[in-house]
Amino acid sequence: MNKSIEDIISLFISEMSAVKRYSDLTVKSYKKDLEIFLTYCSNQKIYELEKVSLKLIKRFMAESKLSGNSPATISRRLSSLRKFLKYSHQNDYVKSNLISFVKNPKVKRKLPEILNQNEFLHILELIDNQIVSDYSYKDVLDKLIFELLYGCSLRVSEVCNLRIDNIQLKSQQLKVLGKGNKERIVPIGSKSVESFENYLKIRKFNVQSYFLTNEKGNRVNSRYVQRIVNKYLGAVTSLKKKNPHLLRHSSATHLLDNGADLIAIKEILGHSNLSTTQIYTHTSIERLKKVYKQSHPKS
């Protein structure tokens, strides 16, 4: 008996989560996109993957556009479907991978917003003042989180999933498990080492050996990171988006501004393609234009 589309989606999601160990956020995103496709197929009275045609896929994408979805959303939805059908073909649930003939819509990428370097230093100053006036476990932990997000350019999921044996202070580097279960080495700046050492002196141990733990010894989760980042960003910037990824964008742009090689930045960030990293080149150029317009007498 052939498996239903719903059954194969469940198998695919399980593999992404348990075998390939994608982040919870990534798995949730794929699941949402595929559930929308499943609903569309059900409305067309199609329940088996073998009955899905190229025409149906194109109709699904066209209706997504007519529903008012942005090109970025449609592109992401198509990418989810592409990955799912590739998995289905590799596991012999379908005879051919039809979606390989469908192109993603062109998406105009928005340049990421960033902090300037003084704004980030102001955040560290605020936390340091808090530590001096009322030394607490939380303040030491919070400072290290900012060092990891900005100083090491990590994603939130990478920060929360760091384990104690990933930290190599003697050689000043981290072993990071990134997207797609890919491992990379990230340098720890000499100015950041002190924050690591201060935290390790008071760190609460836990059974799973996660590196970042709260005062009860429980692993620090993404909600906590987002909350403290929002708090401190709110004190130093008027930028609309105040999320942890802003610090990663800022770190990459500042590296480029200060002469870092684009290939080296790609490796630090854990990008699969150089084209993803090149967005920071455009960000630096746009910032340069802005400074020129504001400062140059001939502008």
Overall 3D shape: elongated
Oligomeric form of this entry? single chain
Strand order of the largest sheet: 1-2-3
Q: What is the CATH class of the largest domain? A: Mainly Alpha
Strand fraction equals under 5%
Largest sheet: 3 strands, antiparallel
Distance between the termini: 71 Å
- What is the CATH architecture descriptor of the largest domain? Orthogonal Bundle
List keywords for this structure.
DNA polymerase, domain 1, mainly alpha, hpI Integrase, Chain A, elongated, 299 residues, single chain, 2 domains, 13 helices
Give a summary of the structure in a few sentences:
The chain is 58% helix and 4% strand. It has helices spanning 5-19, 24-43, 54-66, 71-90, 117-133, 137-151, 156-161, 193-202, 222-236, 244-257, 262-269, 274-277, 279-295; strands at residues 167-168, 173-177, 183-187.
Task: Explain the overall architecture.
- The protein contains 13 helices and 3 strands.
- With 299 residues, it is mainly alpha-helical.
- It has helices at 5-19, 24-43, 54-66, 71-90, 117-133, 137-151, 156-161, 193-202, 222-236, 244-257, 262-269, 274-277, 279-295; strands at residues 167-168, 173-177, 183-187.
- The chain folds into 2 domains: 5-101, Tyrosine recombinase, N-terminal domain (DNA polymerase, domain 1, Orthogonal Bundle), CATH 1.10.150.130; 117-295, Intergrase catalytic core (hpI Integrase, Chain A), CATH 1.10.443.
- Strands 1-2-3 form a 3-stranded antiparallel beta sheet.
Topology of helices and strands:
Elements: H1 5-19, H2 24-43, H3 54-66, H4 71-90, H5 117-133, H6 137-151, H7 156-161, E1 167-168, E2 173-177, E3 183-187, H8 193-202, H9 222-236, H10 244-257, H11 262-269, H12 274-277, H13 279-295
Antiparallel strand pairs: 1-2, 2-3
